[in-house]
Design goal:
With 103 residues, the chain is of the alpha+beta class. It has 2 helices and 4 strands; from the N terminus they run H-E-E-H-E-E. It is elongated.
Length: 103
């Protein structure tokens, strides 16, 4: 397969560079949305609904690395908050917990 002009160190017009950066940003945003939807879906399916709004309790004995990664992803991005209880649950509340968010 032949190398492109850019791969050979050639000049990249500004429009192409901006277009490529925009496409990469859109792909990153899409990947983030997919990961967040999958993480939320797992918590809703595997967790036990509590009396709180959009709050789910996940038994710690059933929270494998994947579940913990999903919870961490949502918390890191301000899409959830969580805490562990003394009776062996991870309680996750879904929502917008970003600065200036709705919750």
């Amino acid at each position: 397969m032949a190398l492109t002009w850019e791969e050979c160190g050639g000049y990249v017009p500004a429009e192409r560079k901006v277009a490529r950066e925009l496409a990469e940003k859109m792909a990153d945003d899409r990947a983030h949305r997919i990961a967040s939807m999958a993480a939320e879906g797992l918590i809703r399916c595997e967790g036990e609904a509590t009396s709180g709004i959009d709050e789910f309790a996940v038994p710690q004995c059933q929270a494998d690395d994947h579940m913990r990664d999903c919870i961490a992803h949502l918390c890191w991005h301000g899409e959830a908050v969580s805490h562990e209880t003394e009776d062996g649950y991870i309680v996750v509340q879904l929502g917008d917990f970003t600065i200036g968010g709705g919750a």
